Amino acid sequence: MSLFSASHTVAVLAVAQGLLLGAGMCLCVLLFLWIKREVRAVVVESRQRAEAHEQILSGLRKELDEARAALAAAAAAAGVPRGRLDLTRRAQALRLYRQGQSAAQIASTLGLPRGEVELLLKIHRLRDAADSSETPRPAAWN
To answer: Mapping DSSP to helix (H, G, I), strand (E, B) and coil, where does residue 106 land?
Structure first.
């Protein structure tokens, strides 16, 4: 005859199963708490990095503003004109002229000296007149 009966064996197995289930749940809770702590540490570290980057960015913005101010002061001291009539602005000026704007309006819109705009428009009109006549143009105008 065995020491344990069948019902006793089933009871022992049920208790063992319950203990294993409880141990597994405890391990899950411990794992959850450990992960939660790690996530908090990562969040804190990320915030610290973001603050450090923000401070660096703020310093760089300040340096950029100072450099822009120094450049503007140097340009003003050197007598460099504020607006230059480059190819893009020349095309914009001619487009505005074709739309019917005056030299003063074009100069104001593009931030250019009025005299430069008037000179550009005069050259443009002369060139158009030369194109419409049979007179050959100078090579420099081509």
So the answer is: helix
For 50-63, the pLDDT digits (tens) are 999 999 999 999 99
Q: What is the pTM of this model?
A: 0.40
DSSP secondary structure of the chain: --SS-HHHHHHHHHHHHHHHHHHHHHHHHHHHHHHHHHHHHHHHHHHHHHHHHHHHHHHHHHHHHHHHHHHHHHHHHHT--SS---HHHHHHHHHHHHTT--HHHHHHHHT--HHHHHHHHHHHHHHHHHHHSSSPPPGGG-
77: helix, coil or strand? Answer: helix
Structure-token pair, residue 52: 């450090």
Q: Position 18: which residue type? A: G
Calpha distance 103→26 (Å, rounded)? 83
What residues does each domain of the chain span?
A: 87-132
Calpha distance 97→128 (Å, rounded): 13
Quote the tokens at residue 84: 């230059």
